[in-house]
Specification:
Length: 443
């Protein structure tokens, strides 16, 4: 009998991407993940034959028209901003992953969700694998989240978590966090790829079998991505991110994946002394309250998901004696501002090469879309000329290198929000060029 070649038998395989090797390695050479190479008995060329399983009557495939969706209707979490992002509420049997930076307020948000759900009479099980029950109790007292139907347990063993679910029989389960729960059936330490995969698959299977929603907290890495194997994001039904600037009290929740609704909604919260408060209309948070017009300011309308938010851009231009003038930005892209300064100098004749330029947004909001170009340019030009722009003027438009103003998406929605906030003059692509828009802005 011919001897099997080395290429036909590959005893080690990456559980993340499927890369195979003849010897064990700590890091996969294909996907660069650590701790995912495991020994396997799989051999190339061997085909296993499985006997078909006889399906019971309740498991037989049915015509799609005969399947009802009554069990998949959204039910409100009690937090309108959270329901907005989820597509109307929480779906029974859904697996929802919430990720965010440490200290941003993930646990506070989910404790509030648990409290609101428990206040309706539903039994809620909150599993904390990072804190003691006493620490969570203190936070619940501070935020007013104490409810008789809210059950709390500190467990970091998967079997114990399943036992708590069997004992309480909750209508909602929250696990904080999935990276700190370990299973005896998987190798590695808690938080490793194999452990996260095993814990997530087991909890999601329980959620589907018992038709109860489960909310999982996920850690993030240094670059902001969700820690653990990529499979985790594929397994869950909804992936949400909770973020905000540490220097401000505003927090935003967004959906990166949603099997039950859109992914372009944004929920807004404000962190205060007693927890998180919903901000149903955040439009006024990003505008200054100066009663008189001040030079170096201009308002634009930015889109956060489907929401139109008026945001004020402020600029300051100061003469500089340094050979390299400073360009300082906060809330806007520095490279985009540098390009706009070059366009203003070349196309509008505004000399800025001998001046320090500072550009910032009000309220700590970050503008990433090019629709804010025109407002930034007008604010800088206003500061350079020391001419104020009227309070009722709003600017929306992308500026090209040729000095032209390009139209932006969702212009009608931006205009409607500007009108609702009391702005009567909208400067946009109808001004044709940035130079014409500047002339109109300064009257």
């Amino acid at each position: 009998m011919p001897k099997a070649s080395a290429s036909s038998t590959l005893p080690f395989r990456c559980t993340e991407c499927g890369w195979k090797t003849t010897k064990w390695a700590g890091r996969c050479a294909e996907c660069q993940q650590w701790g995912t190479v495991a020994e396997t008995a799989e051999k190339v060329g061997i085909v296993r034959t499985l006997q078909p399983v006889t399906m019971s009557q309740d498991r037989k495939a049915k015509p799609i028209a005969e399947i009802t969706s009554d069990d998949s209707q959204h039910w409100s979490s009690g937090i309108a901003e959270f329901d907005r992002v989820l597509g109307g509420g929480i779906v029974p049997g859904a697996a929802i992953l919430l990720s965010g930076e440490p200290g941003v307020g993930k646990s506070t948000l989910l404790l509030e969700v648990a409290s609101r759900a428990a206040s309706t009479g539903a039994s809620v099980l909150y599993i904390t694998a990072e804190e003691s029950v006493g620490q969570v109790r203190v936070r619940a007292e501070r935020t007013g989240a104490l409810r008789p139907r809210l059950y709390l347990a500190a467990e970091n063993d998967l079997a114990s978590v399943l036992g708590q679910i069997e004992a309480v029989e909750p209508q909602l389960v929250i696990v904080d966090s999935v990276q700190t729960v370990a299973s005896a059936d998987a190798e590695g330490i808690a938080g490793g790829p194999s452990q996260v995969r095993e814990v997530a698959q087991t909890l999601i299977r329980v959620a589907k079998e018992k038709n109860i929603p489960i909310l999982l907290v996920g850690h993030v890495t240094k670059d902001g991505s969700i820690a653990g194997p990529r499979l985790l994001e594929h397994l869950v039904d909804v992936v949400c991110t909770f973020d905000g600037d540490r220097q401000t009290s505003l927090r935003f929740i967004r959906a990166l994946k949603n099997r039950f609704g859109p992914t372009d909604e944004v929920g807004c919260f404000e962190m205060n002394g007693v927890g998180l408060a919903e901000v149903p209309d955040p439009s006024g948070l990003f505008l200054s309250r100066n009663p008189t017009a001040v030079s170096g300011t201009c308002t634009t309308v930015a889109m956060e998901g489907r929401r139109a938010l008026p945001v004020e851009v402020q600029a300051l231009v100061v003469a500089s004696s340094a050979p390299q003038p400073r360009r300082v930005t906060n809330g806007v892209d520095s490279s985009r501002v540098a390009m706009l300064l070059a366009v203003l100098e070349r196309r509008a004749g505004i000399r800025l090469s001998q001046f320090d330029v500072y550009v910032s947004t009000v309220g700590g909001v970050r503008l990433t879309e090019p629709a804010a170009d025109l407002a930034i340019a007008i604010a800088v030009a206003s500061a350079a000329a020391d001419l104020a722009v009227a309070h009722d003027v709003v600017a929306v438009g992308e500026i090209s290198l040729a000095g032209e103003i390009r139209p932006v998406s969702l212009a009608s929605q931006r205009g409607a929000e500007a009108e609702r906030m009391g702005f009567t003059t909208v400067l946009d692509h109808r001004m044709s060029t940035a130079k014409a828009a500047l002339a109109h802005a300064f009257g």
